[in-house]
Specification:
The chain is of the alpha/beta class. The protein has two domains: about 130 residues, Aspartate Aminotransferase, domain 1 (Alpha-Beta Complex); about 230 residues, Aspartate Aminotransferase, domain 2. It is built from 15 helices and 14 strands. A seven-stranded mixed beta sheet has the order 3-9-8-7-6-4-5, sandwiched between helices. A four-stranded antiparallel beta sheet has the order 10-11-14-13. Strand 10 and strand 11 form a beta hairpin. Helix 2 runs antiparallel to helix 12 and helix 13 packs parallel to helix 15. The longest helix is centred in the last third of the chain and has 17 residues.
Length: about 400
Amino acid sequence: MLTDLAEQLRTRESAGLKRRRITTESRQNAHITIDGCSYLAFCDNDYLGLANHPQLIEAVCEGARRYGVGAGASHLISGHSSAHHALESALASFTGFPRALLFSTGYMANAGVVTALIGRIDALFADKLNHASLNDAALCSSIKLTRYPHLDLIALEKQLASSQARRKLVMTDAVFSMDGDIAPVPKLLALCDKYDAWLLIDDAHGFGVLGRQGRGVASHFNLSSPRIIYMATLGKAAGVFGAFVAGQVEIIESLIQSARSYIYTTATPPLLSHALLRSLSLIEQEEWRRERLSQLIMQFQRGLQSMRWKLLPSKSPIQPLIIGSNDEALQLSESLRERGIMVPAIRPPTVPKGTARLRVSLSASHSKEDVDQLLSALRQLDSVYEPPR
């Protein structure tokens, strides 16, 4: 087995697909330290700049003093703290759903929803560019998964119309993590109404950013429906850790009873939920963070108009610059790093073959000067760079 694995690793590296970790030595921020060197970073999902907020740091310390460090047990034994319970109530109220349920990660939340609510005689329908956690949830459930081309609602309608399944669940990212575009949720919901289907929305990259006071994609489109099962993560715009599912009372209670990824794992540390209550207040009250983010997005898009690389149309903090080949994307990322700027190269299988890209992630913690520095470096590379042969 070791010989086979070594050969697979060599093949992956020769194709420009081997992933390597970097180890940061500083707090999460627009400027980070790696191996003793300072870098301007455009590589995280801390969209509102809350991961290093002093009020959240103090809330974590206060939560540790009050609740200790670990939960010690699963939610259904003795691990469900009053901090967890308060956060679930606050999240339900904030997003406008009757109830909410905490999960350790978005990956576990999606797995819990699909495996608990959809059975073997049911059907799943998924956008082709959905996050891996939604696809893997379907694989774990052994339920037939039908994928439709990205945002192709005509294809989805044909699939829904021909399905005789007892229950039908349409799954979609709200903001697609590698393209940055926003799903047409009102049209998806209309199809679900027409064909008696449920709609699972993964709002990992929209929660805190989209909608009134950052309440998410449903607020962004002014939608409310009992058909929506809403999932969002708490380690991106919220700046902490975890995830939650919100929906109708029957949905949440069914997850408590049947979602294996909820039942059979230790609850997250209560101190995190205590900190997230403060994070929710900051998300709601500090509108300037979303306003600055919007300004930075427009600044970046305007600055790239004369360059040869294609910027995908995205109104979100995710700004994907399509390069094409794996080698060129890696070399551009490394050239930026040599100039003190961290921008990750994203390659297949994370994105389709031939669409390797630089994924620029903007945050309210960036300044206009930070974005100008990135644009200046990209212009310089655009003028002198020769793509690998």
